[in-house]
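Changelog note: in this version the structure field was regenerated for every chain. One regenerated record is shown below for reference.
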Amino acid sequence: MSATTKQGEKPKSRTEKADAARRRAVEAIARQHLHVEMLERRHRDALDFHEVPVWAIEAALVAAYDAGRASMRSES
């Protein structure tokens, strides 16, 4: 058993690791640019809907685009 896995838990595949990294990046962009604490549905309008200015949306989209470009460079 590897030091990074719990007993009985399968080691994460490359795809699972990539998905987790993408999720962390998206959540960081949401927090930094949109001031959204979490992206999970909480089934309450006051928690699930946010008023966000267009410049914050633009900044979040630019950050996501830049993160995608950076990930493509690191893979090649």
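Spot check on this record: The helical segments are 14-34, 45-48, 54-75. The chain has a mean pLDDT of 89.
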